[in-house]
Amino acid sequence: MARVIFTGSFRRYAGGEAEAEVEAANVRDLLAKLGERYPALAPHLDDGVALAIDGKIHQDALFSPIGPDSDVHLIPRIAGG
Amino acid sequence: MTDGSQEKANGATRWIGTRPVRPDGVDKVTGRARFGADVHLPNMLVGKVLRSPHAHARLKSIDTTRARSLPGVKAVVTRDDFEDLPSEFVPAGEMLVNYRDIVRNVMAREKVLYEGHPVAAVAAVGERAAKEALDLIEVGYEVLPHVMDVEEAMAPDAPLLHEDMITAGVEPAPETPSNVAKVVEFGHGDVEAGFAEADVMVEREFRTRPVHQGYIEPHSCVASFSEDGQAELWCTTQGHFIVRGHCAKLLGMEVSRLRVTASEIGGGFGGKTVVYLEPLALMLSRKSGNPVKMTMSREEVFRASGPAPGTCIRVRVGVRRDGRITAGEAELKYQAGAFQGSPVQLGCMCAFAPYDLENVKVTGYDVVANRPKATAYRAPGAPQSEFAVESVIDELAKAIGMDPVALRLKNAAKEGTRAAYGPTFGPVGLVETLEAAGAHEHYRARLAPGQGRGVASGFWFNIGGETCANLNLGEDGTIALVAGTPDIGGSRAALCLQAAEALGVDVETIRPLIADTSSLGYTFLTGGSRTAFASGMAVIEASKDMIGQLCERAAKIWDIPVDAVEWVEGEARPAGANAGEFESLPLADLAGLAGKTGGPIVGRAQINAQGAGPSFGTHVVDVDVDRETGRVEILRYTVIQDAGKAVHPDYVEGQMQGGAVQGIGWALNEEYVYDENGRLENPGFLDYRIPVCSDVPMIDTVIVEVPNPTHPYGVRGVGETPIIPPMAAIANAVEGALGIRFTDLPMSPPRVLKALDEARLPEAAD
To answer: Where do the domains of chain A lie, and which CATH numbers do they carry?
Structure first.
């Protein structure tokens, strides 16, 4: 199962948990399961987040695959000028 | 069928890394290039905006009767012409936008929230009539107390901009409104335990002022609405698909009925990623039935378009005597301007990104104030926070007697480092930039007495995103490269080079253009240092698509399976002896035969590019300070940055130099001066002083190349990172020259003189 690491504000929304194990094939699957497990986190997922999957940032990529041993970090969407 | 593009990722390239003449160069130096204000249409009207003279006021009434009856006036628009939109954050490309705020920023509704906030707009047959009409609009204001600065805005008794703003990100949610829109936190580890391990700790508070992007070309657009409800819009923008989406929403249109064309752009730097005039011009055109042109004056640009936010930042860092940083903590308060949405989150994420820290905590506050809504400016949020952290790092290096480059190297983020904002870095080039800085002749050159040298590093994420590209093959074998990202930093050249490399053809055979929003699929804006990376990936994919079609045509002509054809150096060849003996077919021959072998050939790609590689940079600067005038002179400046792979090194160097120069302005001179009523006193380049050529030396550059493994040629974005280190590098250099640590920007002559006077006072007392 993928390991999801919560830091900063996301940890608070996840009830203070530092990490969770989630079985998910892709980003859409992972976000849905996180939203179900952590209701306080759900609205922030709906707002749009980016995921760092094994260090590589994915944004607006619902079908990016997540491996069974992947490390996943939730981070805010990244903008730029 | 095979193509050669992937194999070149780590090998020799023919075009990547070369410096051909820019494809847009002749038009620009001969004056043919058409910028935002260069579009003229028959029966075109002039549009003007009436702006609030008050920083904060309730709009009691707006009477446009006299203006509408003025001869020559064809349309007047106010808040009543725009439908109110609910408060809802929706993703729009990289950004979360709240259309309730956008509709209020383009035209004030209940209140005006900054001096310059639009209150009404007119379209008339000429500039004079339009200006006269503005004078005839009667607006009833109830002036309210205003608040300009972030700490004042956070005070419990501060005037409220939005009476319904409840701070998000705090639990339990506050029961009363405030100007704090949001609180965010980042970090990991235990900072207090980390500080307990430190031998030396430095804690400082920093303040930076809002600064404008300083693009030379003001905002400008022409809108033309037709009777059947379709419209065209020409404008200077970094993202015409974004403009289309915002305008369609605000005007209640389907996006397919609005065609937006991006003009050549005279600078953007993030400031042209939003809409100001465009919805007004469209509404005026819809009401008048005529095309309408609107162009901001320089004063309007300063009073009403977005600056980078001013900030108040507290930083604490602890270090052991051996140079290992044990903990870092920061609290960032950013001015969002009139509506929430400062880049404080990004500032938090970048603050400690150059360092491998076990214990780090960053808290950010997004705070509204009676200023124009903050807008992206190169690496939004990062220059301020990294200025603060990099200043403290320099102070720590001095405190433990360690070379500042060596201290950074000892703690530098590298592949495998858990970034302060969470994820683990892949291959990144900070160590390489630091090593290059330490080895550079500049870093070892002798300074004269009284001069100072500073060093600082910077980090930016870079992004990818939705991107389309087409390659249209002409009948003579030349190619039209069609992209959707406006070219603000040389992207047309960079895209042509990547296409030429992938196709194996001469770069001169490729002519680039930026398509309008109806001629190409949705493409996100030029920003986030994404264009050379993401549009480059799209162009490479389109090249592969074209190569596939070319190989199919060759297979048909030779009557062999397509698998038996390979594409090498711009021509189709039989793949090995078993494929048969055929004379190779160059691109031009296949193009000439296209009509008879299956029809036109167009390579297409539509992608959502992921895996942008972060970019790190390190700057070295030498300064001298005139002790009588307080002027800081930049004596020598070297920018070292990881570009992944420099596609067109001239442009990469140009980005590095341009970022450094803008950072020099931010560090030394640029600031808004408001009077006690919240009115801007220096809305022009004479009084708001950006650097000119005589202010800066030649900016030396060193391109480091640590390839981004996601991109076929290793490309990373380069446009934003170079504006991050200058402020700290210069402050560190000034500290070296004077022994005075500046924590407030800008280090302008009056501030430097004041600091010198204060430093002399104790001497005088002695």
So the answer is: 2-76 (3.10.20.30)
